[in-house]
């Protein structure tokens, strides 16, 4: 029996996962079976990957928009769908809802939300969302599902399709639908479990080497009876085996020799094997290796590129999949559906630093683009009541819209002195950029644009003054950046 109210949604019996040797939600490791939840709990490489996906996807805001035209859209902050996902139930918020969703998909590749219909404080029909444990859910029907069953402690509760938001929804007639990644990782996880058992056994025996004792044929012990041999073996095990014998030295009989018979951690490539298993798990979840702690070939430049790859190629398909399922199963419950869609706010995660964004906009616009009070708000300062602070300041030097080449000074003598300085700066920049691949030159130049402009302005200041030097430096470097972008576009 299920109580479906916002005073509490609960099973009146204790939920217990149902697992059997033929269950599609179990994983065989050697001669025993683990549930997927146990694998997530005990296998660090699996948990690292699943938690990484869940937290990063949940951290990206899910927003609701209305498409007005191809070039215009409206952010709907009070739309039904935005409110339902923003506060799915009294005990859960959006972040936890999405985190648990991605965790379920990462572990089971199935996830289920129960729709709890109610009337909100304003008298509007609303829907609450409650996660249902995937291991307790069954999908019934043929090639297409007809209904769901939630089994808790042997008691079954059926649900119509309209009452569940389901992601994948395992179907026994379609073995590819809802197939857990842990099934694909079956062998590599078994290897990790065996390595863990070996490591535990090694330390339980005080880190001692396995080995054997050889005796010469003329040693007194060669004539021992069977009982004498067993008695000696028991004494040896109790004395020198296990943690009780740590730090003690064995004294062997005359003619006895101890010979190690085990592989060292180096010889067995224990560390390399552990790294391989993490790499395989990361590859299965399509996560760039530096983000799961494999930093062998990580550098500042490739980490920046892999950060872009993370949100485009790794998390991008997850975003699209979740968007489509929410629109197809939840948006249809809303009164307002006209041109409404959901979208994860990837732009906020992909945006560069404030300095990089400011430089980019300044070059694109060619003049100051922010009001004083807007800038003060970004650093949490109070408004300036001066009316001028609510206006965009006039141009004070910088790249010009009208020209891509620096306008020479009006003084002919100054122009003659400026030309060699500009030429020298160009040669320095060319020497630096020549060391880079052609497709990286424009982006690298943009990253160092402020420094190039500052250096050139300092060289020009003794000739034309500070203001004029800054203007010429801005224009010269803007022209260089435009040329580099053009060359990159032509090459593409």
Structure description:
- Strands 6-5-15 form a three-stranded antiparallel sheet. Strands 8-7-12 form a three-stranded antiparallel sheet. Strands 9-10-11 form a three-stranded antiparallel sheet, with no helix packed on it.
- 45% of the residues lie in helices and 17% in strands.
- A hairpin with a 2-residue loop joins strand 10 and strand 11.
- The chain is built from 17 helices and 15 strands.
- The two termini are 63 Å apart.
- It folds into three domains: 1-204 and 278-351, no CATH class; 364-396, no CATH class; 398-491, no CATH class.
- The chain is flat and about 110 Å long.
Summary of the model, kept short:
By secondary structure, the protein is α+β, with helices and mostly antiparallel strands. It is built from 17 helices and 15 strands. A hairpin with a 2-residue loop joins strand 3 (26-29) and strand 4 (32-35).
Q: What's the helix and strand layout?
A:
Elements: E1 2-5, E2 8-11, E3 26-29, E4 32-35, H1 36-42, H2 44-59, E5 62-69, E6 72-75, H3 80-86, H4 94-107, E7 111-119, E8 125-132, E9 137-141, E10 145-152, E11 155-160, E12 164-167, H5 181-184, H6 186-204, E13 211-215, H7 226-240, E14 256-260, H8 270-284, H9 300-314, H10 316-329, E15 340-344, H11 346-350, H12 354-365, H13 372-378, H14 412-433, H15 441-447, H16 449-464, H17 466-491
Antiparallel strand pairs: 1-2, 3-4, 5-6, 5-15, 7-8, 7-12, 9-10, 10-11, 13-14
Provide keyphrases for this structure.
alpha+beta; 3-stranded antiparallel β-sheet; 17 helices; 17% strand; disordered N terminus
